Sequence to fold (311 residues):
Amino acid sequence: MRLIFMGTPQFAVPTLDALLSSPHEIVAVFTQPDKPSGRGEKLSAPPVKEIAQKHRIQVFQPEKLRTERPRFDSLSPDALVVVAYGKILPSWLFEMPRYGATNLHASLLPKYRGAAPINWAVANGENVTGVTTMRIEAGLDTGAIFLQEQISIGFLDTASEIHDRLAFLGSRLLLRTLDLLERDAVTPLPQDPSQASYAPMLKKADGELNWDQPATEIYNRVRAFNPWPGTYTYLNGAVLKIWKAFPIEMSISHHVTGVLTHAGASGAIVTCRIGSLRLEEVQLENHRRIFATDFLHGIRLSQHQSMVLGR
Fold:
């Protein structure tokens, strides 16, 4: 097939790599415009653009797609492949190619439609997730399903680890889907809207920890939201970022949530509504990331002493 590939972040790279090694021809890549990043606000190219340029594929980065119809018509694609492109496609675009537009989504649709399915699956303590290939239609991730493949989420797995596993798994699933489409050997199945759930784009506020939740739920957010937006609390008005932590069952003499205690050999322990959270790696505002035991020494919190975290 003659393909147009539309994708932007690292999640889309394994699929682009797989297509480049397949018999299919990628006639163009569409990706988001370069964006400023880092302290110097230097323009940074999306990962997909870097791979496409390495293989000398023409790259387009329009701010808006609605004016791009003549370009798409001139490219005469048999199909569109869309992986985390980052914008809603106009209806004329996914209706134009012979084989339509196929999207790779990082969840078991109809669960976790939206921008951040991996993060919210981990944050919500799901035991399984997966990837779905689907036909693109006007709604948000509502199109009929071609194929799905499932993986388990372990209690120690982070969103970053699940991201990498799903990116690889999805690249294989997408190739299988294109093969079946080309042979007219797959029947898309409509989604059941009553089973739908949503995974909205992450915001900085999603990372603020609520110590009135059970320790396991807080732990799920720690492993789901690092590196972005990060999970954090406050210590005397300064942001305290929690990089690594683990839930434990531990009896503390008080029952107030959000109390940090230097619990001797057990380390830095924070009380939660149910259970406690042992901090392992933290970063105080304007300081570097360090082990929680070193942090306790730095703030001069002696053994069995406590202080309150939060606003």
Observations:
- The first helix runs from residue 13 to 20.
